[in-house]
Write a structure and sequence with these properties.
The chain has three helices and nine strands; from the N terminus they run βαββββββββαα. It has about 180 residues and is of the alpha+beta class. Strands 2, 3, 4, 5, 6 and 7 form a six-stranded antiparallel β-sheet that branches. It has a three-stranded antiparallel β-sheet with strand order 1-9-8.
Length: about 180
């Protein structure tokens, strides 16, 4: 959805308070699409902050379906959208200062709400998703989900990252 900012940018600088529906049905990251099954309306507030800058505040929430990092079972994850941004709308303002946010969602006097939400999802995306704290994952040999049952695979191989520790303990036995 495109939000017209001309009333904020005009001489009267009328602020915009709007409830905007989030239309994107999935979020793409790393070549994978994650469905967004619930999307609350985004409560947006846009005000003129002086010196050709805007103050943009927003609150909302989306629920994404993301696979568990251990067993790959789909997990519904609520991702809050809560932001306060200060951006420049000066076309000559090429050099962004550290105190201003990126403006790839503003084009002239239009604010692209979907791009703004996409940016916020990139920032707020969870780093680790588990279906439960005690998720056992999948068998590295046969792929059985160990939360649903055991498998008949023998785990005879030691994790190669632990071989150094094995050698240390082996030396202690000899002494």
């Amino acid at each position: 959805m495109i939000l017209d900012l001309s009333s904020v940018l005009s001489e009267q600088h009328k602020p915009i308070e709007a409830s905007v529906s989030i239309e994107m049905e999935s979020f793409s990251s790393g070549g994978v699409d994650f469905p967004l099954i619930e999307r609350s309306p985004l409560q947006l507030s846009v005000e003129y902050a002086g010196k050709k800058q805007l103050s943009i505040e927003g609150r909302g929430e989306v629920t994404a379906v993301i696979p568990c990092d251990r067993c790959l079972k789909d997990v519904e994850v609520k991702i809050p959208l809560d932001f306060h941004k200060k951006v420049s709308v000066d076309p000559e303002h090429v050099d962004q200062s550290d105190e201003l946010d990126e403006t790839n969602y503003i084009d002239g006097s239009n604010l692209d709400v979907e791009q703004l939400v996409r940016n916020e999802l990139l920032v707020g995306w969870p780093t680790k998703i588990l279906c439960s704290d005690d998720c056992k994952g999948i068998c590295s040999i046969c792929g059985q989900n160990l939360n649903e049952g055991t498998c008949d695979c023998e785990d005879t191989g030691l994790d190669p990252r632990m071989s150094v520790i094995r050698d240390v303990f082996k030396n202690f036995k000899e002494v």
